[in-house]
Amino acid sequence: MGLRICDLVGQELFALNAARVFPAASTIKVPLLVLALEWAQTGRLRLEDRVTLQAADRVPGAGVLHELGPGLALSWRDVLTLMIVVSDNTATNLLIDLLGVETVNTWLEARGWSQTRLVGGLQLPPERRNAAQRRGERNCTSALEQTDLLGRLVRGELLDEVHTALALDILERQQLRDVIGPGLPRAENGQPLYRLASKSGELDGVHHDVGILYTPRPLVVALLSEGGADHRELPGNRDVQLLSRALWPLLATLGQVYGVHAADGDI
User: Whole-model pTM above 0.90?
Assistant: First the structure.
């Protein structure tokens, strides 16, 4: 497990194996979102322009586009939203094709994120994989760099005010809240008491969650893990439940959450 928790000004509050590199799973979609919005900010990408879904674009795994027919014209805003909100792999690959693998990696390196690397598209059939993927290389990242990216995003250091707000709005609407989300303290009507802008990621035995948690003391959190023994997909994965129960007492303490009822017990 790799874990790093910071406050919004970037002060590290807790770290465990923060620099360890893990398969990125769907957390690679966070830097892709930010880079795409940087392109939108500079005029290189118009979010309302449309891309047409082709039959060959559809890949399995998370999302909904692989269930839909070809010919659908999606705005790039739709693509970014689907990539995060339902973790759509087809939408992600459309964006990767637009940005380019080398462009993404050059952008990451320029911002000091050398542990985060995009190798190629997601869930591609063998004939569409690049040489690095055929060698077994995988997209990768670390808790250190995920928290640095999210912290710089929320502080407005990566995008202007409009595009920062858009990035956070999309992240807040994520539907697949695996580790951080289930432990959110809730009101009597079941509504979460605190906002969460996050992105989870899952592969076989790999469970990640990264995000900005707006507790009384807001936190930037990245928890990455691999080697899980429960190979079932969500929901109900025991490893995810264990990670959430282990993480939340720490988040409650650092986030100064007291006297409320959390999803898995009193804090």
Answer: yes
